[in-house]
Amino acid sequence: MGGLRNVSSVCSISEMDDFDLSRLLNKPKLNIERKRSFDERSLSELSIGLARGLDTYETTHSPGGRSGFGTPASSTRNSFEPHPMVADAWEALRRSMVYFRGQPVGTIAAYDHASEEVLNYDQVFVRDFVPSALAFLMNGEPDIVKHFLLKTLYLQGWEKRVDRFKLGEGVMPASFKVLHDPIRKTDSLVADFGESAIGRVAPVDSGFWWIILLRAYTKSTGDLSLAETPECQKGMRLILTLCLSEGFDTFPTLLCADGCSMIDRRMEGNHGELQMISIKGYKYNLKGIYGYPIEIQALFFMALRSASSLLKHDEEGKEFIERIVKRLHALSYHMRSYFWLDFQQLNDIYRYKTEEYSHTAVNKFNVIPDSIPDWVFDFMPTRGGYFIGNVSPARMDFRWFALGNCIAILSSLATHEQAMAIMDLIEARWEELVGEMPLKIAYPAIESHEWRIVTGCDPKNTRWSYHNGGSWPVLLWLLTAACIKTGRPQIARKAIDLAETRLLKDSWPEYYDGKVGRYIGKQARKYQTWSIAGYLVAKMMLEDPSHLGMISLEEDRQMKPMLKRSSSWTC
């Protein structure tokens, strides 16, 4: 990779002489013959496994395979007629494609001509492109994914500054935009590393999604040559250097600022302190995404596991793999022990003693039982459980966050028992978490005085809207993947059927508002690309469950803690 360049607050590139991407793009794919392992099974075996209620698996790639959903390249192997929405979805997805020097490099966030304000919806976001990338991979079109991975990798190598502060070398951009100069007939890229984002926060999740997508590309195509290039190896090591660095942390989890992931607006309490208020008899513990959010921890875990399978076993690679293994063991124990909540665990916390001192303490984070919000006692079924939103000293966010819990299942951060419990919870609380449009990004919504303190009176995050209890169709692909992995495809089918009653008619909104997701979001963009792609990926995975192997990892038995559920907070 070329030397660093000072691009101050924005990175704009028009020439790439110092980093010849063409030589990477033109590398031939490797023809790889691989022995089938325990987690690499044929589609027929997987279908049998699903019928028997098989809970987890990871499948091999099927080079050149297409999903068969309403595109010109569709195969004729469909066992059923595709829904009429599918063809419209593919047409809309292709309209969103972005080209750089004649090559597709991503998809814009939204293609909404009715909106007067474009803002940054005309950019290619790393996190937003993931479902689009999976859709293209499942349809046998990997080139756009390869180009995207290389362009974002190139942008990572630039020096990033916000005002006078230099960001870490491994930071991936939140988004980028292609600028076309019709007079000079040139294309250039402009990247945003957080300096233009709301709150000026760098995207912690971009690097994790990049590694996860690199693995998905490799699994789908069987092409190891891209991941094994010196540039990709270095890119992964730079990301890992950022998140594996040693400091004052006493936990293996990653400390994050608010707004560093999909929930990219303020959702934290004042100064991160524990605050308790009472409104109409309901206790509220004011906290939020700031700290150790489940979404980042689950993505961190999945990225570490993905990187360990992609890093070469050379001198540098082995050193990082050793650090990854140590962190994974600590992280899995911490998350499965301290973030997990089920009926028994809730009852244990309710009976906690406080102000314990010494290594024999049971209440290790000094959680005050009175801080448990009233709603969680009714929300928690006798069978079921989930990873709560945030845990740190004297602070617990008991809210449900969909993305973190689905990623926990796919990455096997959740044990088999925990994964099944998460699905039990979704079934038991279908009205609350799915309602009329899948899927609630967070539950429940915060409102009244709590909303004013936590969000700073954010007019976009009012109750049951946007990130504050809104329903996001993009989450459909994550729910479907989790359902297939846990052997419950019928749940995914039910959710997809719900989405199909509205999405096309409503012009593919970004999100829905209301307690059950009945209304199009008050500021939701139409033709939101990841709503479209999320639907396509969900449909394709149900048609061919072998696609799950791109974004699913089997449980590492060595990381499974020997914990009893009733004493899971004791060491």
UniProtKB/TrEMBL annotation:
<comment type="similarity">
    <text>Belongs to the glycosyl hydrolase 100 family.</text>
</comment>
<dbReference type="Pfam" id="PF12899">
    <property type="entry name" value="Glyco_hydro_100"/>
</dbReference>
<dbReference type="InterPro" id="IPR008928">
    <property type="entry name" value="6-hairpin_glycosidase_sf"/>
</dbReference>
<dbReference type="InterPro" id="IPR024746">
    <property type="entry name" value="Glyco_hydro_100"/>
</dbReference>
<protein>
    <recommendedName>
        <fullName>Alkaline/neutral invertase</fullName>
        <ecNumber>3.2.1.26</ecNumber>
    </recommendedName>
</protein>
<keyword id="KW-0326">Glycosidase</keyword>
<dbReference type="InterPro" id="IPR012341">
    <property type="entry name" value="6hp_glycosidase-like_sf"/>
</dbReference>
<feature type="region of interest" description="Disordered">
    <location>
        <begin position="57"/>
        <end position="80"/>
    </location>
</feature>
<keyword id="KW-0378">Hydrolase</keyword>
<comment type="function">
    <text>Invertase that cleaves sucrose into glucose and fructose.</text>
</comment>
<keyword id="KW-0119">Carbohydrate metabolism</keyword>
